[in-house]
Design brief:
Helix content: 55-70%
Largest sheet: none
Organism: Gemmobacter aquaticus
Protein name: 17 kDa surface antigen
Strand content: under 5%
Number of strands: 0
Shape: globular
Order of helices and strands: HHH
Keywords: Signal
Length: 79
């Protein structure tokens, strides 16, 4: 059951990776800002921690840090 949950979250992460476009009104999309990436990282981190029966708060905190830090990755799409 854990493997299927991991595959599900991986599929959802890949499916939402295309949401990095602007909303058509000149405003950046959710994943184009550091705060938006931190929120998305917190959601994914909490869901992954819950799937592995770990502490959801710690998973959300680590996910938020990773999401917020993803704006500064060299060679990747920056915020």
């Amino acid at each position: 059951m854990r493997l299927s949950t991991l595959i599900l979250f991986g599929t959802l992460a890949v499916a939402t990776a295309g949401c990095v476009q602007s909303n058509g009104y000149g405003q950046p999309g959710m994943l184009q800002t550091q705060g938006g990436r931190a929120v998305a990282g917190a959601l994914v981190g909490a869901a992954a921690a819950d799937a592995f029966d770990e502490n959801m708060v710690a998973g959300a905190a680590l996910g938020a840090l990773a999401g917020g830090a993803s704006c500064n990755v060299a060679g990747a799409y920056s915020c």
